[in-house]
Each structure stands twice: as C-alpha cells, then as structure tokens.
Design goal:
Strand order of the largest sheet: 2-3-1-5-4
Shape: elongated
Keywords: Signal
Pfam families: Baculo_FP_2nd
Protein name: FP protein C-terminal domain-containing protein
Number of strands: 8
InterPro entries: FP_C (IPR057251)
Number of helices: 5
CATH class of the largest domain: Alpha Beta
Length: 248
Amino acid sequence: RLFAVFAVMLSFVLVTVLLCACFYSSSATVGLDFAQLQASCKVLREKTFYLKYKFQELKDENEKIAYRVRNLRQYVNDIESYYRIENLEILGVPKRKHEDLIGILRNISCALGLPFDDSQVSAIWRKHRASSDNYYKKTETNSIIVRFVSRKTRNKFIKRARQKIVIYSKSCLPQLPESEIYINEHLTNAKKSLIKAAKLLEEENKIPYAWLKDGQLYVRKTPDGKAIKIKSHHDLELLSSVNTKVQR
C-alpha cells in the first residue's frame, strides 16, 4: 500500500513538472510572438508616417502645378484677347452662298445709324462654330467676325448696338429669313465661359452686377462697391465663397 501511495505521489510530481515545462515553453513562444508583433507594428508605423509625408509632398506639388497651369491658361487667354481687341462678333445673320459680308456689315451699320467705309475693315469672315462653343445659344448660324482697323471704330459699333433694342436680318439683306441679330465683342471661349458663370452668380443674387468692358469682366460685391476685375474662374470662386447674398 505504501508503494502504491508513493507511486501516485511520484506520478503527481512528474505531471506537475511536465505541466510547468509546457507552461514555460508556451510563455516563451508567446513572448517571442509578442516581440515579433511589436516589431511589425513599429515597421507599419514607420511606413504609415512615410506614406503620409509623401502624400503631403505630392499634394503640395500638385497645388503648385495647378497654380502654374492656371497662370499659363490666363496668359494664353490674355494674348488671345489682346489679338481680338479690334474684333466684333455678329450673330444671327443667316448664311447664304456667295454672300457679301462687307455688304451685310454696311447694311448693319446703316441700321445702327453709323457712317461706314470699307477702309475701316481690316478683315471679315464667317466663324467656324465648334461644338463646345455654346455660350451664345440664340442662333445656330455661324457668326461673322469683323476685324476693324481701330478699336475706336469697333467700340462705336458695340456702343450703338447696346443702345438699339433689336436689329433684324432683313436690315442686312431683304432676301434673308427674318431673325434677330446680336453684336458683341469677339471673346475667347474661356472668357465666354467666365461671363456665363458670372451671370449665373448674378441670377442667384450672389453678386449684384457683372459687366463686360473691352474684353474684361468686372463685378461688384455690393451695389455701390468698387468694380473688381475678374480674370479666371478661380477669382469667381473666391469671390462667391466670401460673398453672401446681396440686396439689389
């Protein structure tokens, strides 16, 4: 019986030793795994920090590129506008084969009550309407572009056209179908898009007044405020973001 008790006690000791050995072995393995996990987390933190740094670096560079692109577009638009400063755009005159554009311009001048001489015109042609040129939707007819010898003559036409309510195509040529004629400055597509955006803000009562003078767009923040020259959509966005609705 004593031997049996001793055998049981010995078995208990052996089991205890084995359990302790397993525990210490598992603890060592867990400790090793935890250390590896800590090392992996450190690597991930470093990579995350590096990626955040590169993202900010790319964001800053992208903003610089966007700024340069805006300036280049503005520069090109300014050059195009400068070369159109003596030009006039006439819309609404139906196109005919073998048409006499100088004769049409002469008749428009007569309808406006302005004296006209062929020597005032440097060039005249029909404009090819691009599919993206949707600023003037009053007519599907290709516009007529007139380049005058001087800006002064061009401005006389514009001033008189703005004073007169309506001009009709039959004033240009009796054989033409009846349609309204519009006379405007010869603007670039970028400037037309800018004016359209400004007029939309005006309709939304975010700016009291927007107008065009010598190919340049001007707006007022308040009815009696100072005229502000708008050169780009970015200028309009800045203006509309800080300007609340105004009372006319």
